[in-house]
Design a protein that fits this description.
Elements (H helix, E strand, L loop, with lengths): L1 H6 L5 H30 L6 H28 L2 H18 L19 H13 L5 E5 L2 E4 L4 H4 L6 H28 L1
Antiparallel strand pairs: 1-2
Helix pairs in contact: 2-3, 3-4, 3-5, 3-7, 5-7
Length: 187
């Protein structure tokens, strides 16, 4: 569709691209918000409206970064290649992100730094728990949440760096998609 309308000179690529992003926003924001609204309160998470709002914002940021990655892959590759590669990338990002696997071999441990799942997971944990919050880790024994092995290895306390990393990914993936579409147009 883009190629046909570009060849007829109906509008510029930037108009199409920004209209496409704006047109996708309502569904990209409404459906995850409904999902978080239902699952947040059903999941027994922290009963705080501020925490709920922050959780929703983090999830929406995750959705927008994921969409940006999808746009970039879709612009660079054909449909079959983009679908396959996006599945592989998402699997690698989830595994390297720190939620499913904690003992990542050193030669691939750097992958967590390019995984948006890693940053979203860290942000969600930091929003839910405070540094001094405890849980019952044994009969009559209380342990700090941030000392739990599954959380301790994440390296908490870099809230704004995590937000900045997601912001860079959000804009970076979209710029890559735009440049890739621009390159296709030139050829």
């Amino acid at each position: 569709m883009l190629t046909r309308e570009q060849s007829s000179g109906m509008y510029r690529l930037s108009s199409y691209y920004f209209a496409r992003m704006a047109g996708d926003l309502p569904m990209e924001l409404v459906l995850p918000t409904i999902f978080v609204t239902v699952t947040y309160w059903m999941g027994g998470l922290k009963h705080s409206f501020v925490t709920y709002i922050l959780t929703t914002v983090i999830i929406l940021l995750n959705v927008l970064v994921s969409q940006g990655l999808g746009l970039a892959l879709g612009a660079i590759l054909d449909l079959k290649q983009a679908t396959t590669l996006s599945s592989v990338i998402m699997l690698v990002f989830l595994l390297a992100g720190g939620y499913y696997v904690r003992q990542i071999p050193p030669f691939i441990s750097w992958l967590k730094y390019i995984s948006f799942s890693h940053y979203c997971y860290k942000l969600l944990v930091e929003v839910q728990y405070t540094e001094h919050e405890v849980y019952e880790c044994g009969i009559g024994v209380h342990c700090r949440v941030f000392d739990y092995p599954g959380i301790k290895h994440l390296g908490m306390g870099n809230l704004w760096w995590d937000v900045a990393a997601l912001g860079v990914m959000l804009t970076g993936y979209r710029i890559i998609a735009y440049v890739a579409l621009r390159m296709i147009k030139l050829h």
